[in-house]
Design goal:
The chain has one domain. The protein is about 20% helix and about 30% strand. The protein is built from two helices and four strands; from the N terminus they run E-H-E-E-H-E. It binds zinc ion (ZN). Zinc ion (ZN) binds next to loops. The site of zinc ion has 7 residues, from loops.
């Protein structure tokens, strides 16, 4: 997937330093949990590991990237949400794993 920005002047350099555009990814699960953007607990948060490429800005707790694609999605144990996660994994042709395997792969959010 390619990131998009409504600012015409950014279209040649997404993500731009002075903007919020780009795909966001946290470096660690702890960084995600501490973020003001995290929506943990509402049942609508999907966690996984993503590949980022193109122009990537390295921030303290995460990255913003020009291009991204999910690699793995983690199941939550909540039936309805996991059904959605399985459908997303099918659409992206990736695997979904139980959340307890999240840390076995490294501390990525
Ligand atoms: Zn922008």
């Amino acid at each position: 997937m390619d990131a998009f920005c409504l600012h015409r002047s950014h279209r040649e350099r997404i993500p731009a330093w002075d903007c919020l555009c780009g795909f966001y990814a946290y470096k660690t699960e702890a960084a995600m949990a501490a973020s003001e953007f995290a929506m943990v607990g509402d049942g609508d948060t999907v966690c996984g590991r993503v590949a980022l490429w193109g122009r990537v800005i390295d921030h303290q707790s995460g990255y913003r990237a020009e291009r991204a694609y999910p690699q793995v999605l983690y199941l939550t144990g909540k039936r309805k949400l996991d059904e959605v996660i399985r459908q997303l994994a099918n659409i992206y042709a990736i695997e979904c794993l139980p959340a307890n395997l999240k840390n076995a792969e490294g501390d990525s959010a």
